[in-house]
Amino acid sequence: MKHILFIVLAVSLMLSGCASTFSFGKGQAEPRLPVEVNTYTIPPNFIPQTVIVTALGDSLSQGVGDTENRGGYAGRLAVSMAGWPGIEGIALENTAKRGRRSDQLLAMFQQGTLTGPLQASDYIVMTIGGNDVMRIVKRDLFSLNVDAFSEELILYQNRFETIYASIRSLNPTAPLVVVGLYNPFSLITDEVEEFDEIIASYNAVMAETVEEDPLACFVPVSDLFVGNQNLVYHTDFFHPNSKGYDLMSERVLETMEQCGISYQG
């Protein structure tokens, strides 16, 4: 009998140990709560990537006048961007060429010359328009008047808008930076008010188009090249020198930050 009673007590104790709560002294333990696990999303730029920057346009994007041979503003921009978080390296594809006008750049799109570079681009930078203005200066050197520039501006606006649309048809998502024109004649004389107005009107046309694109940014640089007190001109008195390109690249980076252009991966 005592043996049977011992077995019953042992089984009772075992069953009580399987309960969700148990007694210890006078207190009672609470049931174990489930562990909460928070999800973590890896940032898109967590794994460093090589980024492709494509430069379009004329001598300013080519870097003509840069005595340090650092690639003008585009080369300096690429070096700065290489230090951005998430970027392992920069590949600069510079398609720009000295003397190129907007009609010649447009022809390159029509011929398909820029299709490959633009489709592969992560960022695009461009300067265009300076040689369009200079063509009128050379053509009407001894009979310059504002009307000639105003007539050309209408044609230039149409070409620029077509160029812009062509870029976006090939690459709708890459951030696009358009750098404005400056007045090199301020180096020669202080009486350049009319020419300042001409340059401003060309810049306004480009800025208007660019500002409609949330992934684009227009960079004004005309104030950097008023006269030559800061010694920003090359010896040809038209292109920037190395210091001029330093200032241009700094302005481009500042404006990109203001526009919210960065590397997202």
Describe the protein's architecture and organization.
The protein has 265 residues and is α/β, with parallel strands linked by helices. 44% of the residues lie in helices and 13% in strands. A five-stranded parallel beta sheet has the order 4-3-5-6-7, sandwiched between helices. A hairpin with a 2-residue loop joins strand 1 and strand 2. The radius of gyration is 32 Å and the shape is globular.
Radius of gyration: 32 Å
Major sheet: size, sense and barrel closure?
5 strands, parallel
What count of helical segments does DSSP give? 9
Between the first and last Cα atoms, what is the distance in angstroms? 79 Å
Number of domains as seen in the coordinates: 1
What is the 3D shape?
Answer: globular
The CATH topology corresponds to Rossmann fold
Strand order of the largest sheet: 4-3-5-6-7
Mean pLDDT: 84
Percent of residues in helices comes to 40-55%
Q: In the CATH classification, which architecture applies? A: 3-Layer(aba) Sandwich
The first-level CATH class name: Alpha Beta
Strand tally is 7
The amount of beta strand, in percent, is: 5-15%
CATH superfamily: SGNH hydrolase
Order of helices and strands: HEEEHHEHHEHHEHEH
Low-confidence stretches: 1-25
Structural class: alpha/beta
